[in-house]
């Protein structure tokens, strides 16, 4: 784990048994703190944070944590926290806290050309009256003055408690974020969102406003966080906002594009509301790129360097528990996450290792697939990641076993024709190996989460099914989330045709939004939230439908 110079001030913790073996009751402070934590001098007084006072047995004894002072960098005269704060990748002991200092966000950030010390604070309430942990991290010029802090609440603290965090530099204090760590054992219920595809020009982030209003455990982001497209005038090609800059092709360009997106108040609010697990799709680099092959073969020269710049900018702007990308080559983002005994999830990268799209990546062709489509070695995951998935899925001891990934896995072929070679339909042998693995290993309660295609859908995936066939064994339910804002790709008038495909349970093609998942040991409920009109700000958000999977079945019923 990359700590970016993080130097946490360590907490004193203890159980209700003191070091000499005598049972003790830690002193409980009933008085509010008498000074602003920012000006508190380090103290060894033991006090109980307010949210821990009613713990009946093993009360953690939290030593008062002092907030570190950070010098005000020369030349920093305006608020550097324009891009907000975020948290992510919680495990059972810690969570990643993120911010990036950018007083002039759309022009390279505007920070002085030096590394800057940033203070961070973790607390049990948004008053920050008592800190659970605090420290400093170095925001470096090399990484656009971003910081990724591993924040660890004291051992023995309530693993299910809300946590609050903020950053300070000099006289400036960031907005407050809400987060949590992952639960440790039995989980009765969890709620989270899967979301993707937020083209800034195509619509407003009303869906994020709605996400921020939910009391979620976490968000899973399935890709297309930025779009790399050039700038359009507002009103041209349906654009309701403008990127304002050319297509990014270098580090500076990608950084400014992320900054533009993060300036959106609703996106910042969604990040501030709960921790996120973030993976990417294609538009974080370039539309439909495959490994080191760009969409346009004429741009092959320099594409590896461009991809590297895009990967670095992604890391700089996401609250991920990953080292920053090294100078060149592979950058692994696939990882497993776990939510107690309830949800295990393998997050995949289906861009970096894939074979180039077959048949010239033609879309909506009604011709039979070209022969290469069925080559055994065509891969969407890469061989190594495929094996990692087999080693991970169903091995976490959880009720539900989830694959979180980018592109639609369901068979949406039409009379044998493949309509979209960028999806799993274009990699049928790789798909069949995965579905066969789920069947052969009796992986229980398998769920696939997908994005990319800007429509809401529910499908039942089958192992051993012929392309477009009626045979096969149901092995998983796929939930496709529609786009936050990116324009629809499949015409709404084709809904009845799409619903007639063998694996499709339902689709909604006309609206933007996201999917909220409410998960218990007995049921998985996916609630499709849709924005009435993403082309106007402050539209309304409503529920399109609910789809329920009963544990022990690979079927979805309307709830
Ligand atoms: Fe997209
Ligand atoms: Ca995509």
Secondary structure: elements and pairs:
Elements: E1 7-9, E2 46-47, E3 62-63, E4 85-88, E5 95-100, E6 116-123, E7 131-139, E8 146-151, E9 163-169, E10 172-173, E11 177-179, E12 190-195, H1 206-213, E13 218-221, H2 251-262, H3 265-273, E14 276-278, H4 303-317, E15 335-339, E16 343-347, H5 383-392, E17 400-404, H6 428-440, E18 446-450, E19 456-463, E20 473-480, H7 495-499, E21 504-508, E22 512-519, E23 523-531, E24 541-550, E25 557-558
Parallel strand pairs: 12-13, 13-14, 16-17, 17-18, 18-20
Antiparallel strand pairs: 1-7, 2-3, 4-5, 5-8, 6-7, 6-9, 9-10, 9-11, 12-22, 15-16, 19-20, 19-21, 22-23, 23-24, 24-25
Bound molecules: fe (iii) ion and calcium ion (CA).
Counting DSSP H or I runs of 4 or more residues, the number of helices is 7
**Beta-strand level of the residues, as a percent range?**
15-25%
- What compounds are bound to the protein? fe (iii) ion, calcium ion
| Uncertain residue ranges | 1-62
Tell me the structural class. alpha+beta
The tally of domains stands at 1
- Strand adjacency order, main sheet: 14-13-12-22-23-24-25
- Tell me roughly what share of residues is in helical segments: 10-25%
Mean pLDDT: 89
Give the structure's gist in a few sentences.
13% of the residues lie in helices and 24% in strands. With 559 residues, the chain is α+β, with helices and mostly antiparallel strands. The longest helix has 15 residues, at 303-317.
